[in-house]
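TICKET: design request
STATUS: open
ATTACHED STRUCTURE:
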């Protein structure tokens, strides 16, 4: 279950469906990612074909990422069985 967001536009999209604050062309992919993240209880639950699940390193240790499109990723960490600090970022 998702318990917290870092990106306010992504949180608004998740709760209301509003595309303000996200790239509209990413909406369907984000809907799939967030739906799966909401149902997940560990990072490995996000290991679906095409999502390219990977753990981050360095000062982002304990954070995970899945691919949205191009350089865009949804990043998150798990606190127990819940996803937290869910972010939508262009990090490359």
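STATUS: resolved
RESOLUTION: sequence designed for all positions
ATTACHED SEQUENCE:
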């Amino acid at each position: 279950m998702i318990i917290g967001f870092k990106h306010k536009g992504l949180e608004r999209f998740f709760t209301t469906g509003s595309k303000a604050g996200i790239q509209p062309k990413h909406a369907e992919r984000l809907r799939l990612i967030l739906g799966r993240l909401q149902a997940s209880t560990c990072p490995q639950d996000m290991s679906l074909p095409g999502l390219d699940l990977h753990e981050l390193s360095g000062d982002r240790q304990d954070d995970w990422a899945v691919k949205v499109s191009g350089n865009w990723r949804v990043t998150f960490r798990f606190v127990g069985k819940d996803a937290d600090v869910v972010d939508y970022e262009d990090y490359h």
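CLOSING REMARK: The chain has a mean pLDDT of 96. The longest strand covers residues 82-90.
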